[in-house]
Every structure is written in structure tokens, then in C-alpha cells.
UniProtKB/TrEMBL annotation:
This is HAD family phosphatase. It holds the Pfam family HAD_2. Its cofactor is Mg(2+). Transmembrane segments: none annotated. The keyword Cell membrane does not apply. It comes from marine sediment metagenome. Keywords: Carbohydrate metabolism, Magnesium, Metal-binding. The keyword Metal-binding applies.
Amino acid sequence: MVTEVSEADSLNLDSRVGVIFDVDGVLIDSAEPHFTSWRLLADECGGTVTREQFAATFGRQNRDIVPVLFGEVSKTRLQALSERKEEIYRDLVRNNPPIVPGAVELAHGLARAGARLAVGSSGPLANIEFVLGAMEVTGLISAIVSGDDVTRGKPDPQVFSIA
């Protein structure tokens, strides 16, 4: 078992070995910016979002979160709210993305050791691409599966099964 990020360089992995990274909470410490983006969206809509509501939905897809936080809405409104929320989120993290310490080094070390790397996240593809670009690891990733690619969000493992 690798216990230190630097130990990933000492591995000699078979090219059939794959590592699937989640994004939120694994590559980027995104809980606070996601909470803030939901809160700001609710402010724009004249509502509120509590930490308890956020905690109960964190990691799930927007199509599952919006009805919990805003009530039932039309598909068009759901899409608009989701897109606006993610715009706010990317604006919040754009200048200083909270990349998890050691995540970049781990990805590079695993790739040098021969592992094939993939990303499986319930988040939208635009967020995943933003994070991978900020980490400068896009070229190391063999496959990306986003919330846009699955019909069942977390806690269902579909996103990881496909990746």
C-alpha cells in the first residue's frame, strides 16, 4: 500500500492497473466553495440554503439537489439553476482552486509508474475539466466520466463502473 505520495514513484505497475479519481474531496477540497455557490444561488432566488441541507446533498447531482433545495421545478428551470450554480462555483475557485495537497504529485507518480488514470465524478464535465486543467494533469487522464454521462448519481456507483 502507498502511504506517502512520494512512494508512488517507486511503484512499477502493470499497464492494466487503473486508478479512478473522484474530483470533489479527492482532487479538490470543494465542499466550502460548493456550499457558498448554493448559498449565493439561493440568495439570487430569494431563498436560503443551510449547511444541513447542503451536507445532506453534497456529492449528488444537481438534478437531485435542486428539488431538495428549491422545490419541484420545470426541466428548463432545473437546467438554468444548475448552470448558474456551476458558473458561481467556477468563479469562486477560478483564481485559487483548493487542490488537495499531494494530489498532483500522486497523479504524476502513478502515471510514471504505469497506471492508467481515470476520473469518475457526479459533477458536470466543465467542472472536471476545469480542475484537471488547474492541476495540469489533463494529459495523464485516459477516461473521464461525469454526471452528464450517467443516469444514476451518487451514492450509486455507476459513474465509477463506467470509468
